[in-house]
Amino acid sequence: MSNKGRFWQPHLSMMNPERLQQLHQDALDILQQVGVNVHHPPMRDLLGQSGGTVSGDKRVQISENMVSQALETVQKEVIIHNRLGDPVMPLGPHQIYFGTGSDLIYTHNSQTGKRRKSLLEDAGRAAKLSDALDEIDFVMSFALPSDVPNEDAETEQYYALLKNTIKPVIMTSFSGLDTLERVHAMACLTAGGEEKFRERPNYILYGQFVSPLEHDHQALERLIFCADHQVPLIYVPTIMSGASGPLTMYGSLALALSETLAGLVMHQLQNPGAPFITGSCISPLDMKTGLYPYGSAEWRINDLVMAEISRWYGIPVFGTGGASDSKLVDAQAGAEYAGSLLAAALAGTNLIHDVGYLNSGLTGSLESILLGADLIRWVKRFRSGFEVSPESLALNVIAEVGPAGEFLSHDHTFDHLHDLVWEPLSFDHQDYDTWQDDGGDDYARRAFAQAEKIIENHQPQPISPDLDHQLQKLRKT
Predict the structure, then answer these.
(1) R_g over Cα of the chain
(2) 293 preceded by a cis bond (ω within 30 of 0)
């Protein structure tokens, strides 16, 4: 055996060059033969001037050459910075990061067993908990505040995140371009100015449009703004297979890819070289309930395929993990969190969001974030694999201990104990009697109590008074 150590690590794949080329070509066929509706006249004109075929009021067919050109010009090395300007998330191949989700209408409390409408305070508390958890790499709002005016929701959310964490932020935008401009002004203030932001972007915008094949005016306003201001943009479809896309998995994948490629073309025509992040969310519509299941196996296949084809393109990818259709932190939530997080991580998805989602994207809780963090810790340990070297083989140690010996007291065990052994946050590893003597609580109650304790004791790095004063001016209209 070589003296040089190496790691054996697990990976997940279902694509090969031939399959990737086929999916790419089928997405191109949709763009060339069917086209997309573009509800933004200046962008529609730009597409027509750049090789697209404009027909009717809104339809534009996009050529293979236009897609190839966009794939050539798009920024390949995207690095996201934290509030302090540190480069903490380089979005290269197989570099994965985990974060919460956005805009949950309800918040659940395991102590009371009740859910209620989310408040602005919930966004800040979720961000503060996430700031303290090493397993969470970026934050989203997590709560849609019912206690602030709609036109100030995003700026209030963003301010709450900035106050409670230094970690990078992914923001949504739903109140119009003027509100996005205020959020961006806050980000630039935090970065030290517009040029500093372009050098060290500290937030990403999550933009959505309407499937199938509808690029609405508001979505394109956001796309153009992000391209012009070098804001890294996630521009992905959400497809309910059987409703807004074919029920067949491959049909929905090809449709989703064509839609995000159309976005890429428009984005690069607006500003070649601007940073763009691809991906999609695909799950079959539950025909019995009319709901969009977050825990489906199909969504996991979507994340895998999109991660692979995005690497093939050389573009960062956005995916999903740590989300459940369960209403509570229970066995179903644990199972769906674990499966989704493991699949996305092994696929190499760059940005794995929605950690802590319950109730099909409607509800969240502090304990659900902690459950996600517990499982992320497990997934990271699994994904790290193990080292293969003379030191890890430990042949001399095995010889010293010999038959019927014990390794517990050997120096080799102590030397590697803290580096190799996975430790949970709130998972129970006690014996039954100790667990019962400690109160016999289930996971949700233990996690809620631990999350509350973390929030009470954790102090995020503060914003300077001068910056805080300037941010306050942009919070409210």
Answers:
(1) 24
(2) no
